[in-house]
Specification:
Cofactor: Fe(2+)
Number of helices: 10
Shape: globular
Bound molecules: succinic acid, cobalt (II) ion
Largest sheet: 9 strands, antiparallel
CATH architecture of the largest domain: Sandwich
Order of helices and strands: HEHEEEHEEEEEHHHHEEEEHEHHE
Keywords: Dioxygenase, Iron, Metal-binding, Oxidoreductase
Pfam families: JmjC_2, WHD_ROXA
InterPro entries: JmjC_dom (IPR003347), NO66-like (IPR039994), ROXA-like_wH (IPR046799)
Helix content: 25-40%
Strand content: 15-25%
GO molecular function: 2-oxoglutarate-dependent dioxygenase activity; metal ion binding
């Protein structure tokens, strides 16, 4: 199957040039004959787990309410106007992970997760906007989407979720299974289920600069080195003992200005930051750990693949995996880049790996970051 057929007639290049971050796009039958990857029961089971992020949104008697998971009880499936959202389904289900992989014409550093929403008739999350790009793929039943390019995005105050004060729909479409709607960030929308429906949201990450900056300074705090200590051999008698002297500020700020960030610091920080698993992600270690010899023997025969939960990126000689980083030489780099891009390696390539790489693979296997194919 052509990996990029999800964009209908459009090539990924044209999509990125004309629509990405710019304007909405409706693709009828983006995935022809698409069937839900998980049924209602499987989705509810996921929502009941404490390592899965889920939310229940109800709009009973005209009142919006939101409740966070894990879900113990849900309203009756016969009752109208409720929605259950399950985040990160790709981390727990192979088919959901495979679907997300079809969006890899956009880099992994931007791709976030697959969220599945289940709604009963007339269910929705209200008119709102998101801060991220999103592809909304209809998986089951029908949903009516109303969208608007409106600039005014004031929210109703005191609500448990983001609800636009003045939503003025400009366009409206009913999506059937396999249809997909792309929305750029801050595009107002309201999706209402027509009968029971399931919608898959392919979401992207766009870290706020404030959050990036705070995390970067924390990262730098661990690596800066400023030897020496404050000294003032020329100290003069003061009439104002509570005042900080100009000289003290000058000396201290001259020292602090010695802090420098190199491009390598930035790269290492970003790689670690972008591959850090979310707080509720737990890796499943293999049932039995293999000795190094046994691991290499089996992996060289069958190949290896990254866990659905593993985030692996690279830049230059730096390799990043699940919040950790290391620098590699040219020979190891080739293999690790292939693993990161393809998310798996055939046995013959594993067999050609250096001792260092095999040792790392064995450790990642024990940690549940990678498995034998
Ligand atoms: C939904 O799938 O119910 C909501 C998705 C969205 O509007 O962002
Ligand atoms: Co939305």
């Amino acid at each position: 199957m052509d990996n990029f057929s999800i964009l209908g007639e459009l090539t990924p290049q044209k999509f990125l040039r004309d629509y990405w971050h710019k304007q909405p796009l409706l693709i009828r039958q983006a995935i022809p004959g698409f069937k839900p990857l998980l049924d209602r029961e499987a989705l509810c089971t996921l929502a009941g787990r404490d390592d899965v992020e889920s939310r229940l949104i109800t709009h009973f008697d005209g009142t919006w309410k939101m409740q966070s998971g894990p879900m113990q009880r849900l309203p009756s499936f016969r009752k109208k106007e409720w929605t259950m959202l399950v985040q990160g389904v790709n981390l727990h289900d192979d088919a959901a992970d495979a679907l997300l992989q079809r969006f890899r014409f956009i880099p992994d550093a931007r791709l976030d997760d697959l969220m599945i929403s289940y709604a009963t008739d007339q269910g929705g999350v209200g008119p709102h906007f998101d801060s991220y790009d999103v592809f909304l793929l209809q998986a089951h039943g029908r949903r009516r989407w109303k969208i608007s390019a409106q600039q005014e995005l004031n929210l109703v105050e005191g609500m448990p979720l983001k609800i636009l004060k003045n939503f003025q729909a400009e366009e409206e479409f009913v999506l059937e299974p396999g249809d997909m709607l792309y929305l750029p960030p801050h595009y107002a929308h309201d999706g209402i289920a027509e009968g029971e429906c399931m919608t898959y949201s392919i979401g992207f990450r766009a870290p706020p600069f404030q959050e990036l900056g705070e995390a970067f300074l924390q990262f730098m705090a661990d690596s800066i080195e400023l030897p020496g200590r404050y000294a003032d051999p020329d100290l003069a008698v003061t009439q104002h003992p509570a005042e900080i002297s100009k000289a003290m500020i000058a000396t201290m700020s001259a020292e602090l200005k010695k802090i420098r960030f190199t491009d390598d610091d930035m790269t290492i920080f970003l790689g670690e930051y972008l591959t850090e698993p979310k707080a509720n992600v737990f890796f499943d270690s293999p049932e039995k750990s293999l000795t190094p010899t046994k691991f290499v023997q089996t992996a060289a025969k069958r190949g290896v693949r990254l866990s659905r939960k593993t985030r692996m990126l690279y830049r230059g000689r730096h390799i990043f995996i699940n919040g950790e980083s290391f620098a590699v030489g040219a020979a190891d780099k080739k293999l690790l880049l292939m693993l990161a891009d393809m998310r798996s390696l055939p046995g013959e390539l594993v067999a050609s790996a250096s001792e260092d790489v095999l040792e790392a693979f064995h450790m990642w296997h024990d940690d549940g970051w990678l498995s034998i194919s």
